[in-house]
Amino acid sequence: MRKIFLPLLLTVTLTACNRSEPMASTETVESLSADPERLKELRQQCKLDRAKLGDALCIRVAEATRKRFHGDGKVPYTPPKESPKF
């Protein structure tokens, strides 16, 4: 009986101690970049308490911010036909 109980107790204890991911961790870069209000809110929370939100989410928030600012990167640079005159 003791041989069964001890591993079971250990398994239950380790499972209870396992930290669950926050609900916001399911948000993707695409969903964040499509929702500017949510992105703004999460950027502020990452600034104030990164440890609470977690590095993974804050990295996705930063990537979504970069994506919104720079776009998808598929627009080529087209210089003007005439050089600017200063």
How many individual helices? Answer: 5
Overall helicity: 55-70%
Number of strands: 0
* Assembly of the depicted chains: single chain
The major β-sheet equals: none
| Average predicted confidence as pLDDT | 82
Return the string of H and E elements.
HHHHH
Radius of gyration, Cα only, in angstroms? 23 Å
Instruction: Output the structural class.
Output: mainly alpha
Tell me the β content. under 5%
User: In whole angstroms, how far apart are the ends?
Assistant: 89 Å
Helix and strand arrangement:
Elements: H1 2-17, H2 29-34, H3 36-48, H4 50-53, H5 55-70
Helix pairs in contact: 3-5
Describe the overall structure:
This protein is mainly α and about 90 residues long. It has a domain at about 20-70. About 65% of the residues lie in helices and about 0% in strands. It contains 5 helices and no strands. The chain has helices spanning about 1-15, 30-35, 35-50, 50-55, 55-70. Helix 3 packs across helix 5. The radius of gyration is 23 Å and the shape is elongated.
Brief summary:
The chain has 86 residues and is mainly alpha-helical. It has helices at residues 2-17, 29-34, 36-48, 50-53, 55-70.
